Please model this.
Amino acid sequence: MINKFIKDFMKYIPSQIVPGLVGMIAIPIVTRLFSPSDYGNYVLVLSTISVLTIIMGWLSMAVLRFYSVFEIEERLKVLSSLVVKWFFVSITILVFVFLSIIFLAKAKLGVQLYRLMLIGVVVFVFSALFQVLSSFLQAKRAVKFYSGFTVWKSISKLTFGILLIVAFGYGVEGLLWGEFFGIVIALPLIWKYAIGRFPRGTPFSLDLTKEMAKYSFPLVMGNLAAWILSLSDRFILEFFRGSQEVGIYSASYTVSEKSILLVASLFMIASNPISMKIWEREGEIKSKEFITKVTRYYLIVCLPLVVGMSVLSRSIIEFFTAPEYHQAFRIVPFITLGIFFLGLQHRFQAGLLFYKRTKFIMMSIFISGLLNFCLNLLLVPKYGYMAAAMTTIVSYIALLILMIFFSRGFLVWEFPFKSLLRVTICSGIMGFVIYYLNGLLELSLLFLIALVVLGMMIYALSICFIGEINNEEKDFLIKKIRDLLKRNNGYA
Model:
């Protein structure tokens, strides 16, 4: 199964790398087109869409958890029918509630933010449908289709958005309409590959709805708390410090987040469907072995990325953002390390998901989210976005500790401490060399790329020399690289 994970991981790479690269490309463009204030309002709308999509995520979570069960029982039509029906019910209720709120808050929001929020409602509806359909592709391990649609969404929204801004004179709202058009164009195809024809004639199952809700709603509440953990600081900054500081903070936060969260998400997306199948078909011992191996790979890949981003933080932010955003480069180490801990705690969620004890996930995220919110209220008014960055890492560490505490009551697996030590040493060596070389020449794209490539080479040689990568893994990687080169030569 670990070979399947690695294969799926590599197939999922475009679905995470391309959106990450597109996000990176968008930052220098957007921060040069719009002031920090305008960009701050745009970020607030995206954050609002995010929280609404989280609520709708109860359906996606149910699909990912129960798909394997219904596949074995040959009742997939029942599952897809119920999910579609509840999607339309849920989206209607949410849109009505949200529109009521923004109408009441119109005077407080201001003209621009109010207009952007209305557009955001439209984007949310189609984005939520895209998310639910994507979960079917993910659950059935239709990796190529999942990656293809995800790549299309990320590229098209930026392309259409920039086109609307430059060619048709739209303001920052052009970015939202760009995302809308990108999703709408793809929806007929993703529906076809995810569900196909609407499963008519299937009975409405109240028992299944209850089981789905019992599993998913604690996760939804947990994810809402996670939203508080990761995004509420923007709203607190807006309230106490203004949209200018929201924009400055968000630009550096986005660059930091895109770098490591896409990799952490890649591990989660590739491992979750496989781990559920192992649990359902092979039992506890194999599940423990799988989690340990995936955690080891996570440390090998993500920890050096945190170190590299931290030592190159100033150069990266100065390259990717306009001058008025540069001052926030100091938050990069805090954000990248915080997100590293966020990805690590996903490994400890596995046992709770296997046993359907999602209430403990909800409790963990809720406590850490409340901690983050309180710390932000206490510190942000005086210290601004630096306080928001520091509270992020404190809260993610708290989340990791809580998840370890609760999960060990259900599933105890071997954490790869030896791998952690070796990876830390090799990452430190790489970081020291790159930090020293970074100050030798003037910043340029070529120099920055050269430093990144050199860092990867130093780390790869160090990790092989220290014995962390065994011969079997080396042979596997060499084979995959050769296969990739052969395919590329075949296309040439």
Notes: The first helix runs from residue 2 to 33. The chain has a mean pLDDT of 83.
